[in-house]
Structure formats: structure tokens, C-alpha cells
Amino acid sequence: MKKPDFPEDEQARLETLQLLNILDTQPEERFDRLTRMAKKMFNLPMAVVSLVDKDRIWFKSCVGLPVSEAQRDISFCGHAILGTEVFIIPNTLEDERFANNPWVTEDPKVRFYAGCPLKAVNGSNIGSLCLIDTIPRKFEKDDIQALIDLAAMVEGELSALQMATMDKLTNISNRRGFMILAEQVLYGSLRHETATTLIFFDLDKFKTINDTYGHAAGDNALILFTDILKSTCRDSDVFARLGGDEFAVLLTNTTTLIAKEFIQRFKDSLEQVNSTESSEYNITFSHGIVMFDPEKHASIEELLEDGDALMYQEKHN
């Protein structure tokens, strides 16, 4: 048996999955309708909408299987998300990667598998629409296209969920998305007893940019600020546009001292852009740095409030 590899964008992929806030939720007709259609269309016993979590495969919708999740390292879906094409195993007993897989040798005795990767809005493969049979079978070109078409409908439903947590202008998390991800980070910080630090940003004189040069210039300033912020952050950091000209970054495994070094790198990058851009204005910001203290911050909201207060203090000074 061959364990599935990890995608190159694994960290971003998992973050995208968390943003959907869909794992371990109740069944929904909009997904169940599609797995029923798949089961009937292809005349097979099992159809699944699977989502690939860190260590497991969780089934958002499942027809014909009595379980709601499986181990990722023995999964077929873990292999399916590694590519862009439909992943097909006509006969598992003739494939050395799966012949001795527990799902093949034991119930449900999988003999045929076809999985179409499910792409999120940002391009990450977060799961698959799977077809499973207990007998080997061929999968023709028309079958592949039909599965792709059904998977596109599943992606449409997932996109609607994702867009609710994304900022449309900058294509990063909005406030709702930040709260979802930040809760996960703070939980991990408490569990592993690591330092986590928040930086609260507010662009300086943003209203003046809008009033003087127009809203298109204001939008451009926000996008430019976001691009530099993204390039300065690590994969494990969480960043978002909270609204208007306010941004936040949650730095994992980071003390206040290291956060100050982050700010200096960010300022250097922003000043370099300001000096090379042909814009009539410079982008500057005020910020507040606050380290997460579980005795002071019962929630991410309280951490944000402290960061906001420190930012306004700097802006006033």
C-alpha cells in the first residue's frame, strides 16, 4: 500500500479548508442531492463528497457508506487531490498502491474508485467527489466528463461558503474568516504553550487618498498594502482585512520582540515600493502590537480590542 503524498500547498490548503467552517457540520441537502445524482447516474453503490483534513478524510455527503470519516494515510482521496485530473482506479486488486489497502481487503471492499478533485476559489484542492464500486469497472471518456460536471456543481456550493469569509477587493480573509482561523491559532497556542502575537494595522490618511485622488486610488492602495503584507508573512501566519483600511496579522510562535522585527521588514518593503511607484501619495500605517495572554484575553475579540487601542495610541502620538 502506498500512502498519499502531501500537496505542495498543504499549509494554504488546510487554511482554506478551515475558512470554509464546514468540517463536522450537519448533512445538507445541497450536497446530498449531488451524491444521490452521482450514485444514480453511474449506477454504483457509493458516492461521496470528501474533504481532506490534516489527518483524516471527512465526508460532507455520503451515500452507501456507514462511516463519516477515514484515515488520510489509507485514503484514495488523499491521492486524488494531488493532481488536476480525475483519479481513476479501474481495479484496485491490480494496483499495487491499493491492493492491500484496508478499504480493499476489508469492508467496504473497494474494487473501483474515481475521484474528481474539488478546487476552492484560490485554486487549492480541498477534497474530491468520489465514485466507489465493489466490482471493477471501466470509466469511459463520457463518464469522466459527467463526473467533472457534477464536481463543478459541488465546487459552486463550496465557493459560496468560501466567499462569505473572503474580502472581495484584496482576496484575503475578511473579519469573519479571520475570526475562524484565529480561534484555531489561539487554541494551538494554548495547547502547545507557544507565543502568539497580534498586530493591528490602520492605514494613515486613507480618507485623504480617497477624497483627493478618488476611490480607485484608495482601492489600489489597499491592494498594494495587502500584497506586501502577504509577502512578509509566513505560511503559518493569519492575516486579514478587517474592514475599511484596518488589517490584522496573527503571528504564530512569535514574541513581541520578533513582531517588532516583522514590522521593520514590512516598513522597509513598503518604503521601497513607495519610492519606486509613480503614485502621487505614499502608503503609511499605524499599528499596535499585543501578545496573546490567556489570562487577559478570553477571546480573539478582546485581543483585537487591545491591538486596536494600541494602534490608535500610536496614531494619536
In DSSP terms (H or I, runs of 4 or more residues), the helix count works out at: 10
Number of strands: 10
Overall geometry comes to: elongated
- State the fourth-level CATH superfamily of the largest domain: GAF domain
The low-confidence parts are: none
Percent range of helical residues: 40-55%
Characterization of the model:
The structure is a single chain. This protein is of the alpha+beta class and 317 residues long. 44% of the residues lie in helices and 21% in strands. The chain has 2 domains: 10-163, Beta-Lactamase; 175-316, Reverse transcriptase/Diguanylate cyclase domain (Alpha-Beta Plaits), CATH 3.30.70. It has helices spanning 10-20, 29-42, 77-80, 102-105, 141-163, 175-192, 206-213, 215-232, 256-276, 300-316; strands at residues 46-52, 56-63, 69-71, 87-89, 112-119, 125-133, 196-203, 238-243, 246-252, 285-291. It has a 6-stranded antiparallel β-sheet with strand order 3-2-1-6-5-4. The protein has a 4-stranded antiparallel β-sheet with strand order 8-9-7-10, sandwiched between helices. A hairpin with a 5-residue loop joins strand 5 and strand 6. Helix 1 crosses helix 6 (175-192), helix 7 packs across helix 8 and helix 8 (215-232) crosses helix 9 (256-276). The longest helix is centred in the middle third of the chain and has 23 residues, at 141-163. The radius of gyration is 23 Å and the shape is elongated.
